[in-house]
């Protein structure tokens, strides 16, 4: 089981939310149960969507290419936020995804709200120093206060380095493909 509350591993769980602890050696052949402060709630809110993918900066291109292949007319990009509030890193990721889609789709992309326009502007501002953005964010500062998360920051700031597309295969079950 993987889980965190407020950035700290949940007592009794095997792993917290560090992406570096989720290695092939540790998780291969296992079904994982994960609970996070914000992500779990967000995924539950949209679990009835026809297509549901989980994305971070490292797998942005893989998820974007999957979305492009679906040729869907409408797309909701949902960030988890932090306890119901705005999250800089989620907006950065939303802007990164929207930017990729705008540059690589062979069909017109219409941005329908100010939030995504702002996310695109945020991405344009920080795209050359993602690591600094993650550390500047309130959540980055929170994690820094809890301990040494430098390697986690570096891992999460890598762009387009994973070909994994976590997709919901049944309600509440996400499987990497």
Would you kindly provide a written description of the structure presented here, covering whatever features stand out?
- There is one protein chain.
- This protein is mainly alpha-helical and 177 residues long.
- It has a domain at 56-163: putative 2-phosphosulfolactate phosphatase (Alpha-Beta Complex), CATH 3.90.1560.
- Helix content is 43%, strand content 10%.
- It is built from 8 helices and 5 strands; from the N terminus they run E-E-H-E-H-H-H-H-H-H-H-E-E.
- The strands form 2 sheets. A 3-stranded mixed sheet has the order 2-1-3, with no helix packed on it. A two-stranded antiparallel ribbon has the order 4-5.
- Strand 4 (166-170) and strand 5 (173-176) form a beta hairpin.
- Helix 3 (60-70) packs across helix 4 and helix 4 crosses helix 5 (114-126).
